[in-house]
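Dig into these lines:

——
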Amino acid sequence: MAQPSQATDGMDSVPALLQRNATRFGDKPAYREKEYGIWQCWTWAETEKEIESLALGLINLGVNEGDFIAIIGRNRPHFYWSMVAAQSVGAIPVPLYQDSAAEEMAYVMDHCGARFAIVEDQEQVDKLIEVQEGLHQLEHMIYIDPRGLRKYDHHKLHAFDHIQQQGRAAHAEFIADLKARREKLTYDSICVMLYTSGTTGKPKGVVLSNRNIIEASKSSSEFDHLTRDEEVLAYLPMAWVGDFIFSIGQAYWCGFCVNCPESAETMQTDLREIGPTYYFAPPRVFESQLTNVMIRMEDAGRFKKWLFDIFMAHARKVGPAILDGRPVGGWDRFKYALGKIFVYGPLKDTLGLGRVRVGYTAGEAIGPEIFDFYRSLGINLKQLYGQTEASVFITLQPDGEVRSDTVGVPAPGVEIRISDTGEVFYRSPGTFEYYYKNPESTADTKDAEGWVATGDAGFFDKENGHLRIIDRAKDVGKMADGRLFAPKYVENKLKFYPNILEAVVFGNGRDACTAFVNIDLTAVGNWAERNNIGYASYQELAGHPRVLDTIQAHVEEVNRSLVSDPMLSHCQVHRFLVLHKELDADDGEMTRTRKVRRRIVEGKYDDLLTALYDGSKEIFTKTEVTYEDGRKGYISATLQIRDAAVVPVKAAKVAAE
């Protein structure tokens, strides 16, 4: 069994890393935030002072060691300061998804027993007030944005800057206490508690120690040669482990600058202005960016589109090889260099990825076509495989060994084994401590030797030793004839097309595969506008005959591409329908990290699934939906069911077991 790593040079907590950074390179930028169109900047020395005054204010407010503090809001320096200030006083930060409904927040806060909450604005304050009767332990809320809160009862509601002012005023009184609490922190102290997305049930509180976060951050930073000169854009949910590692773990270990956009609406503009050197995005972001590119090219002039098509075809042929340093002919290199001047360079700058030295995607599998598109532009995009319980990193892709169908080799310090059933297990210094108040799930997930069950099915590629993930173990099944059923692989191929936002493939225990499809309203709406097709709603556009024809063409193209994969050629989609509504987290159909809750979708739309398999050509359905203000309603529609052409393949051998 791997021996636990020990801290070196006294760097045994995130607050200790903060003290080091403020001392060693205090005048270097630590945070930037765009506010009212202007970038504000804080150095590491200034950041240390901001966090210290907040920590003193928290002590003054009555925060005790071991308390849980909920953090709710978008990516802002104040919230990162809040998490480190909480750690500094011996408390445990618990970031929540800011778009969660009040009831979802109530579950997490009640489960961890949070006495304090630091929130962004009136919207989040109102959510907690709505459910406060069930949160008997909640004593104080701290808000950052005061707009709309002037007439609220402020006995237990406090302005963020007021708490800092109180901390500064009480400096002499509490500084010794703060230093004592900070010095108590060890590698084994709890650093953060992050809740799982709850794909299959209630979210679980994953307890991560300083050892988990710092060791994972250190080894991954060394793997990709990250330095304090990196620039990152913090825009992903703060409740997600990836943001915590990139924006706190690695940022504090390396000392690089974290940039916070002004809003979700300005994110793309802010991304271009910052030009990050180290970038992470889940597949959905890359899919969305590609969709926008394709929409713009459809609107472009004939010559511009011809130029784009010519050079992108060449980029797909030689771009990844040039990026990996493999041999490429002189003429091909010259043509690629021309493409860099006319197409690839301007396109990367438009996407905000012109300076990216290391880029990663994870969270779920990315379609190989999408992955290869970005690498063909010369963007060093790689895949990593990880989970909250691992402090992110299980595998990483070394430079020069990047492939779209694998997720790389074990990350530094990580051991991996494949069980007899094909499930992936790992253990590492980043392995979580336990699930909070859930010893049964802890024991089911992590054994006495530290091996963690990922819930994913996979195998090591015999050619290069890289890990290949097939699908979630619970989603991998068998067709009626015993052949492998792995829906995610097919779904990602479908989502490569800009017109398809989401797809859910069915086939476990069946004779054939079928699919639900969500259209991408932006892409399809743009097409409708260009073709003078009027529509009043998503539902109307999704049911338009020409839209259905387009989706059918995409499905059939995916079917043709599947023939070349002997393992999954039988997973071609025989029938499909386009759903009358987008799958939505508010309706329980997706998690807050935009992962499909497959079992819930299957149960909720059982009538539609039945129709896909009983030969129906259309079906009337009525579905409950949740509006933005929380009200419930119903939408009904008659959906057309299409048959898709499939390519005959020779029956694969059925596994003996």
